[in-house]
Write a structure and sequence with these properties.
Layout: E1 2-11, E2 14-24, E3 29-33, H1 40-47, E4 55-60, E5 63-64, H2 70-75, E6 78-81, H3 93-99, H4 109-119, H5 121-125, H6 136-148, E7 154-158, H7 166-181, E8 185-190, H8 193-199, E9 202-207, E10 210-216, H9 217-221, H10 224-230
Helix pairs in contact: 3-6
Length: 233
Amino acid sequence: MLEVRDLVAGYGAVPVLRGVSIEVRSREVVAVLGANGVGKTTLNKALSGLVRPMAGEIRFEGERIDARSAPDIMGRGLIHVPEGRKIFPNMSVRENLELGSYRRARANRAANLERVFATFPRLKERERQSAGTLSGGEQQMLAIGRGLMGEPRLLILDEPSLGLSPLLVEELFALIARIAADGLAVMLVEQNVMQSLDLAARAYVIENGHVVMEGPAERLKADPALEKAYLGL
């Protein structure tokens, strides 16, 4: 579904990613792990068209998208839920969700809204509430729900557990597992290592703009090099 080959990307003339190659298959959960500042968010922005790659290729469902605009990439079904949620605080929960279908799946807005409410019942309870008054966990649910409104073929989740309490992190990962169980391909970009590996089929570890480890999640979880060398655990 997603193939990234030798990707170089950054800001201005300074590369942050230096030859990254990853792939996500249909109906698969893949974790991309690493500490702050290693290039995870730059990778997400390059995949979703917010940063133009300096070199390399990005293919989505067989077509190159590395020169495409962000709206075009979203319209193809690659939907990125950014770090920090980026909700519209003065708009209602329902209005935020409806914005998720402005580019894609507009005709199915009502049906998708009901699906999101079924997945996140608390959003239904707060449908008319201003998004800025929600708790951090509820805002993250809203951000993911907004992504689901566009009927993604691949959903990229950028640090969804950031800033949440341990209890809310457990709840969030359970919800992501439910979404993935419906067959949606998910790329989970996280610092939360063990819970990500519990959920994912495969994983990549990024350090200093390079992929330094990759493979089945179960194997990486048992590899002492993951803790000692790359994640500082």
